[in-house]
Every structure is written in structure tokens, then in C-alpha cells.
Write a structure and sequence with these properties.
Layout lengths: L13 E5 L10 H8 L6 E4 L6 E5 L6 E4 L4 E7 L5 E8 L3 E8 L12 E5 L4 E6 L5 E6 L3 E6 L5 E6 L5 E8 L2 E6 L4 E5 L5 E5 L6 E6 L11 E5 L3 E6 L4 E7 L4 E6 L12 E6 L3 E6 L5 E6 L5 E7 L4 E6 L4 E5 H5 L2 H4 L1
């Protein structure tokens, strides 16, 4: 099963919003002991304005709490207009659940879900909003992808074809969906009919995540990045069935994001930021699949990563509730320039 898939004992989880502005480092033994009691942070999402960061774990962080009934969260995502945020997860082997909250929520107010949907027969591992915000696509560990109507929660389309659980899903365009699964495949679907268009099976192990690149014209040339147990990040053009290039990393990738918004601020072209099991962040060139830099950010597995402030700052979270922040420009500096 995916290493980020964690089963907890809490009756609920708390999401919290905070602006992460500096790397957090334990200063003494007592601080280390306190940190060791915290559950891992398993998902991050950045507010529409690029400032606040919402994190999901089984304990939560202050000052702002959204109380849910989802025992095991796996993903958090803001709607395209930034006025709603969803969390998905569920009970392993029993049911999946989505909860949607209005956003923002006033300080010191505990928000409750505006909508709550029970979905499928296993946890939901990933979710994505449609470009217009009217639909949500979810990846279920029961082996199905589903497209749901946001207003009613009704299932519009079911994606059936993966032989094992789904771990990633995203809209390539309003008409096309891409999924990734533990069966080692990446698949392209018609988002309306649910018809399978093609299967891409170059990974040599389970695919544990997927992220869609920035829009391109025509939409068939838009890139997607998948990653998995074979320690590779693979760049695809799913619309035409092409594996563009791949990179094999020293440590298993656990989360990947695109840094396209900040391309003009670097000399390296389009970039990926990869959070890995060894706690390091690796910056990878989309054009060459070269690892440009690798740097330790947290102690232990880095389960999730997000980009703040137009991708000028990366927020990394994971093991023992750690959340750290680092400037992209600092990451890209040559070692002698940091001293």
C-alpha cells in the first residue's frame, strides 16, 4: 500500500490554516520529544491568494480549526475560485468520504462541513476539482475513479479498469481525466462517458501519485507527472500516449508539485519539486529530467509539499507533524553561495 496511507485512532481530524514563513527546527531534547508524539502531516494545500497553507493530519494545528468526521485524511484541495476547500479520506476497507467547507473561515471559529458525501467501499486517496469547480474527481482505493456533482454529491461517471486501488487523479482538460494506480498504470479517460482511452504502463511498480502540469494548447500535449515505488518520476503526455522522459531518484518520491509559476525567476526552465522518503526535497528539470539540487528539509519521510507565494517558497511536511518552509532561490543556490 502507499507509504502515505496511514490508519489512525482519532475520532476526527482537524485541518488548520497558517502562513508558514520559516523552517522549524527543534531546539532542545524536550522539543524533540514533543514532536515525536505528533501524527504525520499527510496533505497540504495553499490558499487561493498563495499565502495561507492548510494542512491535514490526525491532530491538527492551531489557530484555525475545521472539524471533520474523516478519521484518515489523504488529500486537501481548494476549489478553482478559492471559496471552498475539500478534504477526502475515509475508513480503510469500509468507505470513502468527502467533506467540503466554505472558505475562508473567521479566526477562532470552528467550522463544520458545508457538504459531506460518502463514496465507495474504501478510502479516497486523491481528489481534483474540475476547471469550472462544478465537479470533483476522486481516486478510490476500491479500484474505481468517480466524478461527482459538487452540488448534490451524485456520481456522474465511474472509471472502471484499474485492477488495484487508485492513488492519483486529475483533469487534463474538462473532457479528459488521468488516473494512476497501485497496478502500476497511468490511464486516460473520457470524463463524461467514463470510457478508457489508453493505458500507460511503463512503471515497474505501484504508482503512488500523480500531478497534472500547467495548461497547454492543444490540451493533448499537456504534461502529467507520475511517481511510485520504482523511485521514478515519469513525465507523460497522456493525451497522445507519450512517455516524454523520466528520472530515477535515490529515495522514493512521496509527493510532486509543478513550479511553473516561478519559471521566469529561474534560469532552469520549468521545474518539479519532489518530496522524498529520506526527508529531502529534490528539484528536477522538466526539460531534461536532471536533478538540479537535493537538500534535506525535514527529519524522516516528507509526505507532502506545496508552493507558496507564487512558488517562491516551498512548504514541506510529514513525519512527526513537522512542517518546514524554504525559499526556492535558496534551494537553487550553489553550495558555496549558501555559505
Amino acid at each position: 500500500m502507499p507509504s502515505r496511507l496511514l490508519t489512525g485512532l482519532a475520532a476526527f481530524v482537524v485541518l488548520s490554516a497558517q502562513v508558514v514563513r520559516s523552517v522549524t527546527v527543534a531546539a532542545d531534547e524536550a522539543a524533540v520529544n514533543r514532536r515525536a508524539t505528533l501524527p504525520p502531516v499527510v496533505a497540504l494545500a495553499v490558499e487561493f491568494d498563495g499565502e495561507g497553507v492548510v494542512s491535514a493530519s490526525q491532530a491538527g494545528l492551531s489557530p484555525l480549526s475545521l472539524r471533520t468526521e474523516i478519521v484518515n485524511p489523504h488529500a486537501v484541495a481548494f476549489a478553482p475560485d478559492g471559496r471552498s476547500v475539500l478534504v477526502c479520506g475515509g475508513e480503510p476497507g469500509q468507505t470513502g468520504r468527502i467533506e467540503i467547507f466554505g472558505w475562508p473561515v473567521s479566526d477562532h471559529v470552528t467550522g463544520t462541513a458545508r457538504q459531506s458525501f460518502q463514496v465507495g467501499g474504501d478510502s479516497l486517496y486523491a481528489a481534483a476539482w474540475s476547471p469550472d469547480g462544478g465537479l470533483i474527481a476522486v481516486a478510490g482505493l476500491d479500484g474505481f475513479g468517480r466524478v461527482l456533482d459538487v452540488a448534490t454529491g451524485h456520481e456522474r461517471t465511474r472509471l472502471s479498469g484499474h485492477s488495484r486501488g487508485l492513488t492519483g487523479i486529475g483533469f487534463l482538460s474538462p473532457q479528459w481525466l488521468v488516473t494512476a494506480g497501485l497496478d502500476g498504470s497511468v490511464r486516460l479517460w473520457n470524463a463524461t462517458s467514463g470510457e478508457l482511452q489508453r493505458t500507460l504502463a511503463n512503471h515497474s511498480g505501484a504508482v503512488t501519485g500523480l500531478t497534472i502540469g500547467p495548461p497547454r494548447e492543444p490540451a493533448q500535449l499537456r504534461l502529467a507527472a507520475s511517481f511510485g515505488d520504482d523511485r521514478t518520476v515519469r513525465l507523460w503526455q497522456p493525451g497522445i500516449g507519450r512517455l516524454v522522459r523520466f528520472v530515477r531518484l535515490p529515495s522514493k518520491p512521496l509527493a510532486v508539485i509543478w513550479l511553473s509559476e516561478n519559471v521566469q525567476a529561474t534560469e532552469h526552465g520549468e521545474l518539479l519539486a519532489v518530496a522524498c522518503r529520506d526527508g529531502q526535497v529534490r528539484i528536477v528539470s522538466v526539460d531534461t529530467a536532471e536533478i538540479l539540487v537535493e537538500r534535506p528539509v525535514i527529519d524522516g519521510p516528507a509526505y507532502c509539499i506545496a508552493a507558496q507565494d507564487a512558488a517562491k517558497r516551498l512548504v514541506v511536511a510529514g513525519h512527526h507533524g513537522q512542517i518546514a518552509s524554504v525559499r526556492l532561490t535558496d534551494l537553487l543556490k550553489k553550495p558555496d553561495a549558501r555559505n
